[in-house]
Design a protein that fits this description.
Blueprint: H1 11-18, E1 23-26, E2 30-33, E3 37-38, E4 47-51, E5 54-57, E6 61-62, E7 67-71, E8 79-82, E9 86-87, E10 91-95, E11 98-101, E12 104-106, E13 109-114, E14 119-124, E15 129-139, E16 144-149, E17 155-163, E18 165-170, E19 179-184, E20 188-191
Parallel strand pairs: 1-4, 2-5, 3-6, 4-7, 5-8, 6-9, 7-10, 8-11, 9-12, 10-13, 11-14, 12-15, 13-15, 14-16, 15-17, 16-18, 17-19, 18-20
Length: 192
C-alpha cells in the first residue's frame, strides 16, 4: 500500500530553479502556494507548471519573464483559486472546471481552458480581476463555459472565445474597451 505524505518546496528554491529552466510541481490532492514567490527580473523565460485536483495561490507570485500554467488534470470536482496577485510578463494559463479569480492576474496573455468534455465555471471575486492585452478561452471537446469577468479591476484588451456553449459577462474599468472575437459552436449568451 502506498502512503502519501505532505511535502514542501520553498518559494526561494522554486524561484532559483525558474531562473534557469522550467519547474513542474504535481500533487495527488492539493497544491498550495503559501509564501511569496518572486523570480528575478530579466531571467529565463521558463514555465512554472502546477498540477493537482485542487490548486490554491494564497501568496503573491511575481514571475517576471516566466509563465504560469495551472492544470487540474481532471474534468470534475477540481478547483483553482487565485487568492493573491499573480504577475507574469509572459502568460498565465488556467485549466479546470471551477476557476475562482479572487485577486488580480497581470500578464500579456491569459488563457482560461475547459478540460475535455467538461463544463467550466470561471468567476471573479473581490478584489479579483485580469489585466491583460489578450484573454482567450479554450474548450476541448464537448462542454461549455460560464465566464463571469465582472470585476472593475479588469483591463482586458481582447477577448477571444473558442467554446461550444458559453455565457459571457465582461466588465472593464471605466474607459477600457474590450474587443470580443472568436468562434462559438452552440449557444452564446452575452450579459452586459
Amino acid at each position: 500500500a502506498s502512503v502519501n505524505f505532505p511535502s514542501q518546496i520553498t518559494a526561494d528554491r522554486v524561484a532559483t530553479l525558474l531562473s534557469t529552466g522550467n519547474v513542474r510541481l504535481e500533487a495527488s490532492f492539493q497544491l498550495s502556494v503559501t509564501a511569496p514567490l518572486t523570480v528575478a527580473a530579466g531571467g529565463f523565460a521558463g514555465e512554472l507548471f502546477l498540477q493537482a485536483p485542487a490548486v490554491t495561490v494564497s501568496a503573491p507570485v511575481a514571475l517576471n519573464n516566466a509563465s504560469l500554467t495551472i492544470d487540474t488534470a481532471q474534468s470534475f470536482s477540481d478547483t483553482i483559486r487565485i487568492n493573491a496577485p499573480v504577475q507574469s510578463l509572459n502568460s498565465v494559463s488556467l485549466t479546470g472546471t471551477d476557476i475562482g479569480i479572487n485577486d488580480v492576474i497581470t500578464a500579456g496573455q491569459v488563457t482560461l481552458s475547459t478540460p475535455t468534455g467538461s463544463f467550466t465555471n470561471v468567476f471573479e471575486g473581490t478584489p479579483g480581476g485580469i489585466v491583460a492585452g489578450q484573454v482567450s478561452t479554450l474548450l476541448v471537446g464537448e462542454g461549455g463555459m460560464n465566464l463571469t469577468l465582472d470585476s472593475l479591476n479588469n483591463r482586458i484588451g481582447n477577448l477571444s472565445l473558442n467554446v461550444n456553449n458559453a455565457t459571457v459577462r465582461v466588465d472593464n474599468a471605466a474607459g477600457t474597451s474590450t474587443n470580443v472575437q472568436g468562434t462559438v459552436f452552440g449557444d452564446l449568451t452575452l450579459i452586459a
